[in-house]
Amino acid sequence: MREVSAPGGVGPGSPLYGIGRGEVAWYIDFSPQNRFAVTRRERYSLMGDCPKILAVATASPPHVVRQADVRTMIESLFSDVLATDDRLIQVFDHAHIEKRHFCAPLDWLAADRTFAERNQRYIESAVALAGEAARKAMTLAGLQSHDVDHIIFVSSTGIATPSLDARLSNTLDLRSDCRRTPIWGLGCAGGVAGLARAREFALGDPSARILFIALELCSVTFQRNDLSRRNLVATSLFADGAAAVIVAGARAAIPAGGMPPLDVIASRSKLWKDTLDLMGWTVESDGLHVVFSRDIPTVVQEKVRPSLEEFLRVQGLGLETIDHMVMHPGGAKVLSAFAEALDLPENAYRHSREVLRDFGNMSSPTCLFVLERFLEAGEIAAGQTAVMMALGPGFSAEYLLLRGASD
Predict the structure, then answer these.
(1) Which residue ranges form the domains of the chain, and what is each CATH number?
(2) Whole-prediction pTM value?
(3) Known catalytic membership, residue 188
(4) pLDDT tens, 117-129?
(5) Do the beta carbons of residue 216 and residue 364 sit within 8 Å?
(6) Which listed residue (50, 178, 188, 367) is catalytic?
């Protein structure tokens, strides 16, 4: 055991004083209201022990589609339904999306294809797109493929065995002893949750350099024969993309140069009971059918702030102390619900709004596209804090606390 500083830098002679080892410290609270109470906190203040984000890179597939073009396709395919209720097509106008990227042209997506055909397109496109993002991230971090000790791959829009991380290990020429962790089913929360898993692996092996990839090809899940409102909403919103992040442990060998790193301080998962029907897939004979409840913005307004404040309180922080919010733009209504629940000015989530406008909701990688914009703008300065947040099936939230590193 050794003495450590409590959150906020306090120590002996101040209200919080603690001893600890590794990731968790026990603090004795000498404040008048909690005299001698012992509390367990993650060690927010120990900067040197934190895993670091060294690089973030994104990749988009080649087929750029304007929102108006998708609307025209849907008006043709769903003409019978829209003839009885033309208000449904207005979701395209209210999505606040100008363009998206798809892994196939619209005429390919509009054709009546089997689950097997669409999944094969997913595998082929995923390997190429994820490989592009991974190479960009390794280059930004100054790493070669043989430097990667662990690859984590997150996706929920197709299936593959051998898994895509195994296929990427071949195309990227990773070492044969590189550890692999594929994660499926996290949906939109996967970008933040996967980055949290990378942090945990880096804490377990401080010398590790980890390649984390989030990829989704939502377009190949389009169901042309599903005339439901939820399918129409999904078609107006979801898109394709990939993002890769290099995370290094505290004792990892890191090349000089590169972007100013980010400390990955802490993470928190929150699962709300009895909300399984809000978001996800139903698996049917013709493939994956989206589950997307209209109640999601209401849940955001009611549930997110208390759970986020609980997470920050454990770190000795409050909402008012956070400099930046890196929010997953699940949709225009969801983004507005986030802003309302957290009392955020419009400028605070402009990167999220712009990513939604330019790329749509790509599910798991979307939040990483937003983080990339923060980094390109140089907005998370040394010592400043940022919270990444995303919602996903379960119904669940994922939070990640970041800080601009001093070195």
Answers:
(1) 2-45 (no CATH), 53-248 (3.40.47.10), 262-404 (3.40.47.10)
(2) 0.85
(3) yes
(4) 999 999 999 999 9
(5) yes
(6) 188
